[in-house]
Amino acid sequence: MAERKGRQLPRRWVVSAITMSLAGVATAAFGATRDRGDDETGPSHDSSPTIPIPTTPAVDRIDQARTRIKAYVQRYDGHLAVAALDRQGTAVVTVGTKRFETASIVKVNILAALLLRQKPQGKALSSDTRRLAEAMIVSSDNDAAVALWQKIEGVRGLTAANRALGLPETRPNVHWGLTTTTAADQLRLLTALTSPTGPLTPQDRAFIMGLMKKVIPEQRWGVTAAREPGTPAAYVKNGWDTVDVDGGRWLVNSIGRIVDARHD
Q1: 56-73: average pLDDT
Q2: Which domain holds residue 195?
Q3: 119-168 per-position pLDDT tens digit
Q4: Within 10 A of 249 (CB to CB), how many other CB atoms are there?
Q5: Which whole-number Å values give the CA distances from 9 to 2, 12, 249, in the listed order?
Q6: Strand, helix or coil at 31?
Q7: Do residues 256 and 224 touch, judged by C-beta distance below 8 A?
Q8: Per-residue confidence (pLDDT) for residue 53, from 0 to 100
Q9: Which of 48, 125, 183, 242 has its CA 20 to 30 A from that of 94?
Q10: Tally of domains within the chain
């Protein structure tokens, strides 16, 4: 949910379910808007160049997945971008470079920024701050997000954190839910939150993933649709809001991670 001048959005949303066979390409970022007229997956006027993510081009299923996603996008009146990475096989697929408003997926970014500001790094959060972080991620509580947004000094803090996290395409907004990003940048964020070489301590990475694993059932849609039955570990954070400049139609984002015996 995007926070706009403190208004509380109603507890309702529209979810478009997309089932894609990515053959084990599991860690993903997803963004979509119901838009008029233009259903291209290429760069739009408001997109910025995507910094390439290393990939192994010999994996044939990547081209197959990209073709399937493009065909899906072209059938519908809207915009869609997808980025996915299999961390065990270094296989990457990205489709679409359009910039989207984050809505509530920025809450993961806010929490990462908060943890990066701890002195010394890795220092445990206070009990009150931990409760705010849990409410912000697990149930997408907007009041908790406002409190933590203030703790990181808003745009200034998120901008500094995103330099450390390697997110060149994410532009913070004073109304945090109106921050804009790309699917590729959200994949970079997820990579930073799961990599031993990332800027966060192991304890901080485990804290964020632990909260994303506990997201309440009614908010566990999106990326988790790619989970196979019996998959023990699925982590997700979703965002949804209506877009004023698009006649009040819906924008839906989903970021997450799926770990099973064969893939991460």
Answers
A1: 74
A2: 27-259
A3: 888 889 999 999 999 999 999 999 999 999 999 999 999 999 999 999 99
A4: 16
A5: 8, 8, 14
A6: strand
A7: yes
A8: 52
A9: 242
A10: 1
